[in-house]
Design goal:
This protein is an all-alpha fold. It is built from four helices and no strands. The protein is elongated, with a radius of gyration of 21 Å.
């Protein structure tokens, strides 16, 4: 792969990382606000309805899952940046063939070519 292509993908990965950090921070702050609000509601003299509690729990679990997914993608981005630094970016870790640029443009942090990914 050409050096300018690698630099292009590095810029893309760094931007993705910044965007994911920002998104995760926003979600974590919202999760904390929601948790604080729920704790305050639990201190109320009025009993909570079971449907309200289960709805709140569902929303919290959904937010946690999204935060975990973002963290997982950030880890994959960090791995891709490491592969750039070590000269292994764009090479399939399974078969050793070059990963097509069209695939890297869609999933810049991928470690595998399409055929190995399907296996």
């Amino acid at each position: 792969m050409e050096k300018e292509d690698i630099e292009k993908f590095k810029r893309i990965l760094l931007k993705m990382k910044r965007d994911h950090i920002k998104e995760r921070k926003t979600l974590e702050e919202e999760y904390l606000r929601q948790s604080t609000r729920n704790q305050a509601a639990n201190l109320s003299a009025y009993p909570l309805h079971t449907a309200d509690i289960s709805g709140d729990i569902y929303e919290q679990e959904k937010e946690i899952a999204v935060i975990e997914n973002i963290s997982e993608i950030m880890h994959k981005i960090d791995e891709a940046l490491h592969r750039i630094d070590t000269g292994k970016y764009g090479i399939c870790e399974k078969c050793g063939k070059e990963i097509p640029k069209t695939r890297l443009e869609i999933i810049p942090f991928t470690k595998f070519c399409i055929s190995c990914s399907r296996k």
